[in-house]
Write a structure and sequence with these properties.
The complex is a heterodimer of chains A (121) and B (107).
Chain A lengths: L2 E4 L3 E3 L5 E8 L7 E7 L5 E8 L4 E4 L8 E5 L4 E6 L8 E8 L8 E4 L3 E5 L2
Parallel strand pairs in A: 2-11
Antiparallel strand pairs in A: 1-3, 3-8, 4-5, 4-9, 5-6, 7-8, 9-10, 9-11
Chain B lengths: L3 E4 L2 E4 L5 E7 L7 E6 L6 E5 L3 E2 L7 E6 L2 E6 L8 E7 L6 E2 L3 E5 L1
Parallel strand pairs in B: 2-11
Antiparallel strand pairs in B: 1-3, 3-8, 4-5, 4-9, 5-6, 7-8, 9-10, 9-11
Classes of the chains: A mainly beta (121), B mainly beta (107).
Chain lengths: 121, 107
């Protein structure tokens, strides 16, 4: 079964660092993009950026560039999203999702279950 | 960034009704448009890819059409399990962008 399994919910204080994970299984991890999508409470979906594990290409949305870091460990088929200094406005659900590199099928076809991040003093 | 505008923002229809949601892109995106369904408390799920292709396992009452800047998601006969928020998403240009969502309820 193809799946993405994300790390558990986090409760952090402003200014703290955080790294959440997304482990793929059931497919060749290095041949699909892994994207990260934010959903703030009661709001819509926002694409943050993606990584292609095959060559470590990373693209960020301008809205998130400099605020987060996307990385991956091919040996464990795991992608990461990290913050160096959290803000209350980072409180949200974060999803990872697989995306094909082929433009004719380039949808997010497999999603992780989501990681809830709460930042509060 | 390419702006995606969905309408309506919400709707309520009866079981068996035909439901249509539209999505307009701020520039030509060819057919690089996907549709997702998100039920409360769940991750989004892919319904339609490349504007009109039904994802495996998705009921045939869902269909997508359009190209360029104007796209449509149709539910031919609304079912109670279709209560959800629906999002369009373009992948013609980075950053990929989503519409603001359409919340579908049942009368």
């Amino acid at each position: 079964e193809v799946q993405l399994v994300q790390s558990g919910a986090e409760l952090k204080k402003p200014g703290e660092s955080l790294k959440i994970s997304c482990q793929g299984s059931g497919y060749t991890f290095s041949t699909y993009y892994i994207g990260w999508v934010r959903q703030m409470p009661g709001k819509g979906l926002e694409w943050m950026g993606h990584l292609y594990p095959g060559d470590s290409e990373i693209r960020y949305s301008p809205s998130f560039q400099g605020r987060v870091t996307i990385s991956a460990d091919k040996s464990s088929s795991t992608a990461f999203l990290q913050w160096s200094s959290l803000k209350a406005s980072d409180t949200a659900m974060y999803y990872c999702a697989r995306q094909s590199v082929e433009m004719a099928t380039g949808a997010f076809d497999i999603w992780g279950q989501g990681t809830m991040v709460i930042v509060s003093s | 960034d390419i702006q995606m505008t969905q309408s309506p923002s919400s709707l309520s229809a009866s079981v068996g009704d035909r439901v249509t949601i539209t999505c307009q892109a701020s520039q030509d995106i060819s057919n690089y448009l996907n549709w997702y369904q998100q039920k409360p408390g769940k991750a989004p799920e892919l319904l339609i890819y490349y504007a009109s292709n039904l994802e495996t396992g998705v009921p045939s009452r869902f269909s997508g059409s359009g190209s360029g800047t104007d796209f449509t998601l149709t539910i031919s006969s609304l079912q109670p399990e279709d209560i959800a928020t629906y999002y369009c998403q373009q992948y013609d240009n980075v950053p990929w962008t989503f519409g603001q969502g359409t919340k579908v309820g049942v009368k």
